[in-house]
What we know:
This protein is mainly alpha-helical. About 70% of the residues lie in helices and about 0% in strands. The chain is built from five helices and no strands. The longest helix is centred in the last third of the chain and has 42 residues, at about 65-110. The protein is elongated and about 125 Å long. The mean pLDDT is about 80.
Amino acid sequence: MLFTIGLSPAMTTPPDPLDPLLNRWSDPPEPPPRLAADVWHRIALAESGVGSAPAARAAIEGWFARPPFALLFVTCCALLGLFLAEVRVNHLENERSAQLAHSYLRLIDPLLAAQNREPRP
């Protein structure tokens, strides 16, 4: 009597769910004939910086796609706008103060008023 190690004919294994997928699997398709040349050409372009404008734009878009950075940028723009508005208002107030001081001096100083008058013929 010969004993075999393994499964007896009465015991069968259930089918493996991956078997149909493995049966459908085929060899990968052949790559295009100039694939290696195209890859090296792209590498050369990337290293030379010729196509750096689209890459830089993509990097900037990547930064702005992050909500914390976008919020920080908007906040900085708002603060810069407020600062520039304050500088402008301060400049206008300084001009107005200088005009008021000059008007006050003309009003109270008769010699200054006399200099501003034209002699009458």
